[in-house]
UniProtKB/TrEMBL annotation, chain A:
Pfam families: DUF1800 (PF08811)
Taxonomic lineage of the native organism: Bacteria, Pseudomonadati, Pseudomonadota, Gammaproteobacteria, Thiotrichales
Protein name: DUF1800 domain-containing protein
Listed InterPro entries: DUF1800
Superkingdom field: Bacteria
TrEMBL record, chain B:
Pfam families: DUF1501 (PF07394)
Keywords: Signal
Protein name: DUF1501 domain-containing protein
PANTHER family recorded: BLL7424 PROTEIN, DUF1501 DOMAIN-CONTAINING PROTEIN
This protein's record includes keyword Signal: yes
Keyword Signal: yes
Signal peptide annotation: 1-25
Amino acid sequence: MGVLAFRDAAHLVSRTGLGAEWDSIKQLEGRERQNAVERVLLTPAAPLKPAPAMTPWFKLEPMRLNDMKSRNSAWSIAQNEGKRLQAWWVEQMLTTNTPFVERMTLFWHNHFTSSIQKTLQPSLLYQQNLLLRKHALGRFGDLLHAIARDPAMLVYLDCYQNTKDQPNENFARELLELFTVGRGQYRQSDVQAAAKAFTGWGVDNNTGKFVMRTAHHDGGGSAFLGKTGNFSGDDVINILLAHPRTAERITEKFWLAFVSNQPKPAVVSAWAQQFRQSGYDIKTLMRTLLNSEDFWAEQNRGTLVKSPVELVIGTVRMIPYPRESTPEMLNLCRLLGQELFDPPNVKGWTGGDNWINTQTLLVRNAYLAKLSRGNLNENVATNLKLPAAPDEQLVEWMLPVKPLKPLPTIPGARRLVRSLLLDPAFQVS
Amino acid sequence: MNRREFLGMAALLPLLGSLPIQALAAPGEAKGNQRILVLVKLAGGNDGLNTLVPYTDPLYYQYRPTIGIPKHQVLDIGQNYGLNPYLKALQPWWGKGNLAWVQGIGYPHPDLSHFRSIDIWETAVDSGSYADSGWLGTLLPGCKPGLHGIVIGDNSGPLLGKNCHTIAMESPQTFLSQIRLLEDMPPAGNNPVLAHLTNVQHQLYAAGEQLSTKLQRPVALGMNFSTSEIGRDLEAVAKMILSGVDATVYMVTLDGFDTHTSQANVQSNLLNHLAGALDSFAQAMQRGGRWNDVLLMTYSEFGRRVQENHGKGTDHGAASVQLVMGGKVQGGIYGDRPDLKQLDGDGNLQYTVDFRKVYGTVAKNWLGQRHPWEQFGVLPFV
């Protein structure tokens, strides 16, 4: 296991951060691989920006049950505060010193999806974001138990309306299908049994926090995934955590987010087993992944399409161009198909090749072209400088693979950087 | 010669504008008479009951004491239905047999959320399923190579798809300014991700070339188009079609149908704009000799609650009506009439026609493709 060459350090930064930041690459260059990975994994999270003011649940929710006028104003409040919350995360991602934490939080946001549009409760989505951050590199089991009690999730997947008399299967179904074991591992009767176990889990009207309404809980016995008993929601989660498919599905998702677009089933299965045996320690899984031959393999470089967030935010974190205003960055992410706190559906963003189609590529390209000309609606200085480095290193800095376009024949770093920015290889990492 | 040089030259050659369209077309491109689908999305959930009014049913007036369209105002079209009076501009097309209504359109287990329901309509999945691609995004790549769809607006739901070459534009002018920033890229084969990316870029570039060339001198429509926003969008579509742009599907959106309060004014205004724009569009197609090649279809995420609410509006509902127009359309009212006596548990109309029956009809009978949902069959409106 050798030391990291410049382009290896660039690979690690680009895959774990937001943009291949020059200084971060330089800090990792020449280190032992394992040592560099530990630096990424162990750097404590940078402080969070203060949250925007948001109307709490117990004020917003009753307005919805009122007359039309209150309902309309609750809606406008949710829309305005939702925009502010999105802006908060964008600015956090733009300025943080620990972009890895943001990336991990975004990974979990895309796994445990919830949306400001369905819930119309931005303050709950903010709380959920804090929860995802807290457990982002902790234990998956803790995260799963916590997310089942998370008010935004309880509302998003209707679990707060899941009662003994009127069971609602929405959360139970997605828990099985998307959050843990996946399709093919359960039957409708398992969904019903899980829904029953979560009856009475709700949101307290006065505090906006999780509440267990025992009167609405159905304590009767049922059969779930081959086991019988009077299951609580936590029992159901524990049974799902003991199922090997849960670890495999999460591990495969990690592979697709960090390694390549083609998971190797044998490797995924080995990592998954280790993940489960480690008590679902996410840091252990990431350590294995980032130290693996597959992560560093040449054929896996440039096989991940940069997400809209990586492209829009990461680019201005790495290259000294004036950035767009925050609302415009949000608008670009929307046009490119990734609205923070508002994934398209409970499955989240599919990502990968799906980020690229004729419409999004047009907008991606227009954004980068505009950026490179400094021709922006509202310029915001980013205090970055173009690194003084030989051309070959600038190429390795910006692209994970060889450029597809011929390099400019006229010398000059700015010209070179502009050409690399508009190279299709800049869209991948 | 690159595209910009070409356009620069074109500007110096006034005669170019008088060349027949075919001379400008890329080699191998389909010439003329290619069938076109125009989608008009009525966003927010259009109230079907006040669009195609069951005015002979006393229950309708019981459920709608203040917002029901009075008998003497509806435009009778037979079969105990009357058109909303603000759709008057569509009457001539109904008279010619170029307009069809599908009643009772919907799907099982209707979802009353705007977001989820429009997703179901645009991806054509069952109520509990999810898909990444739009229904046309899956279908169109099999129809032809090159450009598949053009969307006026920024949301191209039904046309979303990794291999569906769709352009979304605020207007042709904004598109032309964006596409100028894009370079052509020969498809790269070494890595599948970059192969996809470069292929998309190449397709996009080719579409840009085509549009720049054809819209350099768009044909004059020779008529005054309806001036509402939807009118301007459909005018842009009409110009693209008549200028020979080679896209199979065009899509425009009319937003604002979420009429929870004071529905009458809001919906009348929207339907008035819609009818005016559709009438202008049909006239333009007829004058340009393309009316027989065009099928226009509306869709909306849901209809509205049968019982009006206290705000003289209606809440989110289920089954609704869908409009289909075109030179080859067999006019009439299709599907079974939904029963106002048998509402679902939420007080909504129960569907009688699955929307995929209409989509399948369009796929099979209009676009000449396999029916993606054979089990639903077809309706003979085209």
